[in-house]
Amino acid sequence: KNEVEQSPQNLTAQEGEFITINCSYSVGISALHWLQQHPGGGIVSLFMLSSGKKKHGRLIATINIQEKHSSLHITASHPRDSAVYICAVPSGAGSYQLTFGKGTKLSVIP
Amino acid sequence: DAGVTQSPTHLIKTRGQQVTLRCSPKSGHDTVSWYQQALGQGPQFIFQYYEEEERQRGNFPDRFSGHQFPNYSSELNVNALLLGDSALYLCASSHVIDRGYEQYFGPGTRLTVT
After folding, report:
1. Is B3 on the interface with A (CB under 8 A)?
2. B7 part of contact set with chain A, CB < 8 Å
3. B41: Cβ–Cβ under 8 A, 6 or more apart, which residues?
4. Please, which of B6, B31, B74, B95 could form a disulfide with B106 given CB 3.0 to 4.6 Å?
5. Phi first, then psi: what are they for B45, rounded to 5°?
6. Angle A43-A47-A52 (CA atoms, 0-180°, nearest 5)?
7. What proportions of chain B, in percent to the nearest 5, are helix, strand and coil?
8. pLDDT tens digits along A73-93
9. pLDDT of residue A17 exceeding 90
10. Could you tell me if B75 and B22 are in contact, meaning their C-beta atoms sit under 8 angstroms apart?
11. Which of A30, A45, A95 faces B99 most closely, judged by CB atoms?
């Protein structure tokens, strides 16, 4: 079964700072998901990526399949970015089940 | 496109009762997955439905059952509710694209068992 590790667990940043959240997994995968969850809220899919890099607004996600590692970057962070960011990967080769990281709680202070 | 919708938003039940949660997938999606997220924890996979059949199941007891209809919508049923079943229940819909599959999550149903 795939093991997912995220770092850091908690992150406090000043508004405008560049933020990086990391995710490592143990079993080779076809695609990785980055998700966002606001307190008490549902989950929003940010990215699904299988190689390289994707960008959406101020969010950038990268993945290195060989190193089994992905990063989520937020440029010019804003208080509305405060949320839990979760990395998720298939539980195993060919599995339809997602295994989730424990999440990174981000707080952006004005 | 309304995206993934779930109903109800919130629900309060008593121990021993039964509950049914509903999910309508995003337009064009044929696969529905259900997850349970206890407070302060990450989501746990319950099961996935495709072509009206349970395709894969996580480590949940038989009290948790589901169904998928011909229009791809889905229901999650939980029998003999326990206090520990209190959680946010998330539905995610997907379809296979290229490598991997992009899952879209609904807003969730918050179930409280008293």
Report:
1. no
2. no
3. none
4. B6
5. -70, 130
6. 155
7. 5, 55, 45
8. 999 999 999 999 999 998 877
9. yes
10. yes
11. A30
Asked if A55 and A85 count as a contact pair (C-beta separation under 8 A), the reply is: no
Give the length of chain A.
110
Greatest pairwise CA separation for chain B in angstroms: 44
Question: Are residues B93 and B25 in contact, defined by beta-carbon separation less than 8 angstroms?
Answer: yes
Please tell me the number of Cα atoms within 13 Å of B1 on its side-chain side. 10
Assign B83 to helix, strand or coil: helix
Residue B97: pLDDT band (50, 70, 90) is low
Structure token pair of residue B19? 């509950």
| B107 to A33: CB separation less than 8 angstroms, yes or no | no
- Decide if B69 contacts B88 (C-beta within 8 A): no
B63 vs B56: CA distance, rounded Å? 16
Closest residue on chain B to A30 (Cα): B100
Kindly state the tokens that stand for B106.
């609904």
